Structures are given as C-alpha cells and as structure tokens.
Amino acid sequence: MFPKLLLLALASASVVLAAPAPPTPSDTQILQYALTLEYLENAFYTGALDKYDAKAFTDAGFAPWVRARFEQIMDHEKTHVKFLQTALGSAAPQACNYTFPYNDPESFVQLAMGIEGVGAAAYLGASKYISDKDTLTAAASILAVEQRQVGWMSSAVLKEQPWDGPFETPLGLSAVYSLASPFITSCPSSNPALPVITLPAFKLPAASPWPGATISLTFDNPNNASPTFVAWFSGLDVVFTTIDGNKNTVVPTGLQGTVYAGVVSSDTMPLADSDMVTGLTIVQFPFDSMAAEVDNA
Ligand SMILES: *[C@@H]1O[C@H](CO)[C@@H](O)[C@H](O)[C@H]1NC(C)=O
C-alpha cells in the first residue's frame, strides 16, 4: 500500500514540477520560427549545389534537369528568407551555422525530401497561431510551394509516391524543431528564443519498419513518463501504439508515405508540446501507383 501511495505522490509531484505550458506564440514569434527554418533550407541548398556541380549530379545518375530544378528551389528559399526578413524588420533573427549529413548527390536528394517535408509540416502546424489574415495567406503561399517541391522530389526525382494521402500532416512547433535542430550547430546569441521546448532525439530501429512488426525502441524518458505511446502522425490523424515494459511497440498497419513518429505520454488528441517525451523521427511507408490509398483522416 505504502509504496503505491508514494508512487502516486511522486507522480503528482512531477506534475507540479513540470514546466508551465508556454504562452501562445505571437505572429512575430511564428515568423521568427519560419525564418529560422528558411535560413536552414537556404544554407542546405546553397551548400550542396556549391559542392556538387552539373557533372556530379549526372555522374550520380540524375538527368541534367534535376540539378537545374534544385537551383530554382534554392532561389525560392533565398526569396523566402528575404521576404520574412523584410516582414520582421529589426525583429529578424540572424542565420546560424549548420551541418548536413549528406555525402553525395543521392543522399542530398533524400535529405532534401525530408527537410522540405518537415518545412511544409511546420507551416501547416504553425498556421493556427497566426492571427493576422494577410500573414496567414503569405505563410500558406510559401507552404504550397514547399509542398510542390516535396512532391517533385519524391516523384519526379526519386520515383516514389508524389503525396502521402488526402491530407498533409501538421506538426507542432517543438516536434518540428526536434527534426531541424540536429542540423543547427550554433546560432548568434543575440537571436530571440524560439517558442519551443527541447526534446530528446528519437530514432526507430529501421527508417521503413514493416507494418505489424514488433520493434524494440531506445529513448530517453527524462521525466519518467508512464505509460508511454508511440504517436504516428499521418495526415490529420495520429495513430497511437502502446509501449510495453520492455520498450517494445507494434508498427501500425495502414499507414502510407511519409509519417512522423515520436514517443508521447498521452494517447488523447489534441496532443500538446508538453505531451511529447521525445522528438520525432521520419518514417517511410512507400506505396506504388496501383495501391489503394488509405483515407488517413
Ligand atoms: C559560425 O562558425 C564560424 C566558424 O567556426 C564562427 O566564426 C561563427 O561565429 C559561427 N557563427 C555562429 C552564428 O555561430
């Protein structure tokens, strides 16, 4: 009896000690957050296209138009940076230093598809915080282009599915930042704080796990959240799978395309940043043109 009561007391103490929920971010904070991601994308494309010339792309097996289109995408990102800098004026943060784990044109393209998808999910997830309607339209206009870029990379270049289903996936601010922050090595100390909490990194044992398979997870659980679940973000839906005492979970069936997975302490929607135990990882469930699509709403 006593240990159980003690556990309950500890559990409620941890609730009291948890950080207060961050206030709703302002439009300025959302634009600063967006500019932070656009700086990252701009540095990513500029660095890769500086490194790999037209011959490097064709030697890697890509048609000549692939690199040329990536130059157009690089120009889009530069334009997004300028646009957001202008909108923010003196509130604009500065660019950071970055590191990107590609080592040839092929791994660059794979990473580009991941980064663009996260960028689009960031705009979609942040849209609910934007109160000024014209700002919302501008953000939606950028989002639409980023999503076209993802569709072009995944289908025309990588010959995979051009979309994931009837709905795009919105992601929370901290969830997105957990996917972007590994690429950021240092930022000017004068930059404003972003409206995010830092989450432990999370990876699955395979980037394309087999639906229905039992997989064993490794992750940090700094606040000893219990029970824990894996949240699989797919379109407007989140599928939850329970994590057992051996840190095993069962990969859901019926997911398609790019899905984002992370450990959470609640299986109830809507999820808040404070429900995230870890950051997210990108999971792929490729499907071919003859597959019946799952309506993941
Ligand atoms: C980026 O790296 C350079 C070279 O290491 C360093 O001089 C500079 O201060 C760094 N900038 C930021 C924003 O951290």
From TrEMBL:
Superkingdom assignment: Eukaryota
Keyword terms: Signal
UniProt-recorded name of the protein: Ferritin-like domain-containing protein
The species this protein was found in: Postia placenta MAD-698-R-SB12
Record keyword Isomerase present: no
InterPro entries the UniProt entry points to: Ferritin-like, Ferritin-like_SF, Rds1
Cleavable signal peptide: 1-18
Pfam hit, one: Ferritin_2
